[in-house]
Amino acid sequence: MAEVRAEMVANVWKVVVKEGEAVEDGDTLVILESMKMEIPVLAEDAGVVSQLKVAEGDVIQEGDLIAVIE
After folding, report:
1. Partners of 12 in the β-ladder
2. How far apart are CA 55 and CA 48, in angstroms?
3. Tens-digit pLDDT string for the chain (70 aa)
4. What is the distance between the alpha carbons of residues 33 and 63, in angstroms, rounded to a whole number?
5. Rounded to whole angstroms, how far apart are CA atoms 4 and 16?
6. How far is it, in rounded angstroms, from Cα 41 to Cα 4?
7. Which of 2, 1, 4 is nearest to 67 (CA)?
8. Is 4 exposed, middle or buried (0-12, 13-18, 19+ CB in 10 A)?
C-alpha cells in the first residue's frame, strides 16, 4: 500500500483517476494548482487506486492524503 500525500498547499485543479482504476508508476493522479503553476501528482507505485481523498476545487495542505494505492 502506498499513500500519496501533498507536498505543498495547493488547489486541486483536476482529478485524473477514479477509485478502482489501475495505475502504473509515474501515472498522473491529480493536477494541483499553486501560484498559477500546474503541478502533477504522480503515482510512485503501480497498483489500484483504492481511495481518492480529494475532489476538484479542494484546497489541500502540505501532508494531506491525496490517494491510497494498493
Report:
1. 32
2. 18
3. 999 999 999 999 999 999 999 999 999 999 999 999 999 999 999 999 999 999 999 999 999 999 999 9
4. 16
5. 14
6. 8
7. 4
8. buried
Q: What is the CA radius of gyration of the chain?
A: 11
Q: In this structure, what C-alpha cell is assigned to residue 1?
A: 500500500
Grid coordinates belonging to 43: 503515482
Task: Name the E strands within 1-70.
Answer: 2-5, 10-15, 22-23, 28-34, 37-42, 47-52, 59-60, 65-69
